[in-house]
Amino acid sequence: MKMSKIFMLTFGVFALTACSQTMQSADKHTHWGYTGHESPEHWATLSPKFAICTEGKSQSPVNIVNAIDGKLAPIKIDYHPSSVEIVNNGHTIQVDFKDANNLMQLNGHTYTLKQFHFHVPSENQIRGKSFPLEAHFVHADKDGNLAVLGVLYVLSSENQRLAPIWHNFPQKAGETHTLDTAFDPTKLIPKKRDYYRFSGSLTTPPCSEGVNWLVLKQYDNVSQAQVDAFSTLMKGHNNRPIQPINARVIVE
């Protein structure tokens, strides 16, 4: 099969329109988590709205392996210093943008950055390798279609670019903190932007599919102390286990 046909079959699902509810983690009235009877293996039983967490065939995260060469178009990032609110939603630390001027262009298609958040350890893996931290930059186009840009971190020295977020963690679930100064998300995106692309889902309930996933090949750094601070705040890990690839193709 020609590459163009593979590409069309693989990413045809991206044409699906994600409803506005997919920007939320889940049904506000259904409690879910990462341990015990609310852990990922039980999500589908917690609410009928979460059934796709088990029934879906394009679930995230994935182990990125056996990628094919698709000559992917470059990612064009046009982010700016912006007013942000740091939210502790009980499942992660999420940074919400009050401005709509942070854009990502891909194949001539424009997405607006809505928020970014973190998982410890990483949710996606590269050839079976897990990473101590992963950031997800969640974008939506004018029709509500989602594109998530994933950045993986390796242990090294303290990441000063993360410091404005790490030094202002809201300590309790439901608390928020608005930074006094504008935050530039460009600083968190590696300069080299080669990437893997695949169809997937939200990695939290309701696990909605039709999400365009882009995972950068270049890693950023984070210190063990920063990882520990996040884990302590979240009272443990907040990563969903790897999901089956099924019929999907990963393109690089």
Automatic annotation (TrEMBL):
InterPro entries assigned: Alpha_CA_prokaryot-like, CA_dom, CA_dom_sf, Carbonic_anhydrase_a-class, Carbonic_anhydrase_a-class_CS
Catalytic activity: hydrogencarbonate + H(+) = CO2 + H2O
Pfam (any one): Carb_anhydrase
Alphabetic keyword roster: Lyase, Metal-binding, Signal, Zinc
EC number annotated for this UniProt entry: 4.2.1.1
Cofactor requirement: Zn(2+)
Signal peptide stretch: 1-20
Class in the EC hierarchy, top level: lyase
Record-annotated Alpha-carbonic anhydrase domain positions: 30-252
Top-level taxon of the source organism: Bacteria
Entry's family note: Belongs to the alpha-carbonic anhydrase family.
Protein's job: Reversible hydration of carbon dioxide.
Designated name of the protein: Carbonic anhydrase
